[in-house]
Amino acid sequence: MKKIKKLFEQIQTMGQKISGHSSGSDHSNASSSVRPTLSPPPVSARTYALQILASGCAQGDAAAMLKLSNFLRSPDTAAPGIGAAYYDKGANMWLLRAAIYGDRTAQEIVLDKIRQDPGFLNQTLIPYENFLPNKRSHWHSGLYSGRLLNMLGLLTFQPEESYLLAGISDQRTLLVYQEVDYDPPDEDGFGAETYYHMFFLDEFFQPLPEVPIVCRVSSRDVTYSDNCKKQYDAMIKAMQEAADKRTKLPLWTEFIPEPKKFF
Asked: Model's pTM, two decimal places?
């Protein structure tokens, strides 16, 4: 919880330093008059049982991941407004993560499910490639609501916010884009822009307090604004330094399908 609180404080501090934007102006130099409001952490789980299991998963406990998978399959788990299909995909996601991080029972279940249904790996909430280093580290897998992620045991995310999630990098970190603002297109249909807070989490979706955050920028800002690019590069450097200090657990990858042969 202290890590999450520090992450929130970093976002607020960085938000006072980085240039904002105003519609129709130079985004890299303009000063924003309105800044997004972030809800203070920590985020509590809907139930005590989910809180305990989520805490174990946040520490890399593979057995807790398997228990959370089973928990999400229980009919008593469902929350209003979250469809059963999401719980099934969330349960599959935690089953696969339990297997990846070494739970033997989970590994046997995963292999058995793949034998029964080769499409099983495509039935997880977040694509399985996102959990393997450098498979999808620069590709986002869709926009997720914080509330949905919370209900499935990922408590770092704020319930009223929306997030783009990239896959795990070689450094075992995840790049997250939190959606914070939007400029609609002009009368000719051009110029639409979405703005994000960009930050890193570790492989267990936990904050990296020592890594700075880049606030309220678009992908164009990072590419073309020298100020934003410097802050982005500083974030990357700090992430790499922080990752080098962390112990990396061995990963089980025997479930990965063989590459298709076209000749």
From this structure: 0.81
